[in-house]
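Bit of a strange request maybe. I'm writing a small parser for structure token strings and I need a real example to test against, not something I typed by hand. Could someone generate the tokens for this chain?
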Amino acid sequence: MNYTEAVDYIETIPKFTVKHPPEHTRELLSRLGNPQEGIKIIHVAGTNGKGSVCAYLNAMLLAGGKKTGLFTSPHLVRINERFQINGEDVSDEQFLDAFLKVEKAAKEYEAEGEGHPSYFETLFLMGMLIFKEAGVEYLVMETGLGGRLDATNVVEKPLACIITSISRDHTEYLGDTLEAIAGEKAGIIKPGVPVFFDGSSKKAAEVIKAKASELGVSCREVTKNAYEIQEVHRKYIAFFRRSAYDKDVIFQVPMCGCYQAMNAELALEASEYLLAGEEIHMDRWKEALAELHWEGRMERVGAHITVDGAHNPGAMEAFVESVKALDESERGEMVLLFSAVSDKKYDQMIEYLCENLDVKAYVVTQIEDERGVPAEELADVFRRYTDRPVYCKERLEDAVRTAMNERGETGEIYCLGSLYLVGMMKKLLAGGAIDA
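Reply from user aminoacidic:
Good idea to test on real output. This should exercise your parser:
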């Protein structure tokens, strides 16, 4: 089997297996030699901001001279993006080698009457092998869905746990209240492991603090009082920390989302804990954050096109806040290009966008996934909430051309609704069919 065949096989896994309990993952890890043992793991859960916090942590650990692994999801273009070693995607050879080992163990387990590992479980097992064989010292690891029952939660004693912003998403699996969702995310907290968390939601914060108290662990709540945003620019956001030590240090992250200040602060506080006792070079951290490139998060992909992975109501609120924080001359006349998958609360997202942004026109398209909502259905929802023009284009290329025509000479195009859509946009622009 070659790399392409391995990827094709992995993509078919959801069609013939189901999610398994943690014991299933633990047994497969054992059969693979427990590759997760001996690696210093930082476990990150949350609804929004997980990937960004992971990226910031990874960048600062690298700036401190550490050999790092980074495990995130989903990928935008290539599946290798989910596994990084020292900031670089793993090679096709490393990917294939890990897959063959996991698949061998899976087939042997299946022969004993057990189920094949799920899609995410397979990738998690592969990641543990990849990072172990690469000899990483620190692994920054993002959960897939939830936390308590997530495959990543079989790691017994991480160095630290981080819980990012909590909002309503995946309610069919995690519960339909903030308290229930926070309870699932807080399931990653373990005895003896400190937790750092975004305290923006009081309801979620109470659940997280109660879980930490129950387990007797150190709990650091980060609120907006920990930092102050100085400037929101199309290409970056600048903020300073309110701690006495850092009050004169201005940090920049090269994304304009206001929420990135909270994500960066969470990563900074966790990094200070992780590297306590070592010499901390704050100037290196500042430089590492400023130079970080994290795709799909308020990312400028063309002269007048920004893509953002906002895909749930909480993320839409953060997107609106960030756009409104831009100077009007930078914001321009807005054209929104939107699509979504069926298991997201797209009606609620669309209503919020229409009620809270002054948009010149909306363009909807369809995601190349079996869960993609038909473009015409999305267009009908938009038309219920706005009297602005709504264009329906099934093909992304047609949708982008329509958005470009609508933006005129000074407008800006914002593409959001799903990370799948972000990936499609990147492939389209990389292929040269559209001159952005």
